[in-house]
Design a protein that fits this description.
Distance between the termini: 17 Å
Structural class: alpha/beta
Largest sheet: 8 strands, parallel, barrel
Shape: globular
Number of helices: 10
Oligomer: single chain
């Protein structure tokens, strides 16, 4: 039996297989509202056999968007359009989850396919915020959050989580990776604060833990809470895997159920040794040393590669990103390659390969 196509349980949630679609920004919303593009984009991957669909980074505050095209859950009018996406994903047998995010100093830039620079007010831009007034690369310098601003962020994550539950999502992921706000607080390269939210490990991890506690408190007891972390900044003196493991041990106690393990994103010129499965060892170490289930991501493109990651205990789930953008039916084709029998949409049965 294929390990990749075995079910997986988190709290009261059972995933039909170990393949997930990671959050990938589409930069196609207007005022944070989902539209037909999001319906077809996420629905087609559910039709293609993925077990878990994590909807892209969804801003908890308007100023927390990466770009004007980001999804949002900062007001109630954004709930029903996302509920439409949820209904389609579930209707095709996949599990809908959503990533809640705040971009911090990487906010107020152009759409993903445009030149990445800070937008001016005339272009619809706004002032970004961060733990410290340090710019990301050539972006504009952000404003440092004061105590009131930090509390507002925590409250916004909790409020967005409540809206995610109302929309029907079955799991919530907190984005604390890729150089966005929560990651900015974690790393000593971007957090130079001298108050209770900076300095030592306890101070730099405080906001992440407060957000986790606030979100966990508003989710149903049986609903899984995920977190995405960058296990390393790939820069000397930055956030690293040792600190990630230590944080994950604490997050397990705080009610996190799975860690979505990525890397990088904090420093514009970091040297990242990208290659097939290059981030999997970080996931494996967190799984082993922190005792939390993990999802592995990063240039996972082949069925045999994904099968080995799960079968060998390197990760509990694999998140397939760019390959699912290229091929929404990758899971169905992976099942065929691995000899796993999975259900096809009845409308497509005429195209199902015949076993030989």
């Amino acid at each position: 039996m294929s390990a990749l196509f075995a079910p997986f349980t988190l709290r009261d949630l059972c995933l039909p297989n170990r393949i997930g679609m990671p959050p990938m920004c589409q930069y196609s919303a207007c005022e944070g509202v989902a539209n037909d593009w999001h319906v077809q984009h996420y629905g087609s991957r559910a039709v293609g056999g993925v077990g878990l669909v994590i909807v892209e980074a969804t801003a908890v505050l308007a100023e927390g968007r990466i770009s004007p095209g980001d999804l949002g859950l900062w007001h109630d009018e954004q709930v029903e359009p996302l509920a439409r996406v949820v209904r389609l994903i579930e209707g095709q047998g996949a599990v809908p989850a959503i990533q809640l995010a705040h971009a911090g100093r990487k906010a107020s830039v152009g759409l993903g396919w445009e030149a990445q620079r800070t937008l001016t007010p005339a272009e619809g831009g706004w002032t970004a915020v961060a733990p410290s007034p340090l710019a990301f690369g050539t972006y504009a310098a952000p404003l440092a959050l004061d105590a009131g601003g930090i509390w507002r962020v925590v409250d916004a994550f909790a409020a967005a989580a409540r809206r995610a539950v109302r929309a029907g999502f079955r799991a919530v992921e907190i984005h604390a990776a890729h150089g966005y706000l929560l990651h900015q607080f974690l790393s000593p390269l971007s957090n130079l604060r001298d108050d209770g939210y900076g300095g030592d490990f306890a101070g730099r991890t405080r906001l992440v833990r407060e957000v986790v506690a606030a979100v966990r408190a508003v989710l149903p007891a049986g609903m899984p809470l995920l977190i995405r972390l960058s296990a390393t900044d790939w820069v000397e003196g930055g956030w690293d895997v040792e600190q990630t493991v230590e944080l994950c041990r604490l997050l397990k106690e705080d009610g996190v159920d799975l860690v979505d393990v990525s890397t990088g994103g904090l420093v514009a010129d970091a040297k990242i040794p990208a290659g097939p499965g290059f981030q999997v060892p970080f996931a494996t170490r967190i799984r082993s040393e922190a005792g939390l289930p993990v999802a592995a991501v990063g240039l996972i493109t082949e069925a045999a590669q994904a099968e080995a990651i799960v079968a060998n205990g390197e990760a509990d789930l694999v998140l397939v990103g760019r390959e699912l953008l290229r091929n929404p039916f990758w899971p169905l084709q992976a099942a065929q390659a691995l000899g796993a029998e999975v259900a096809w949409p009845k409308q497509y049965l005429r195209a199902k390969p015949v076993a030989r």
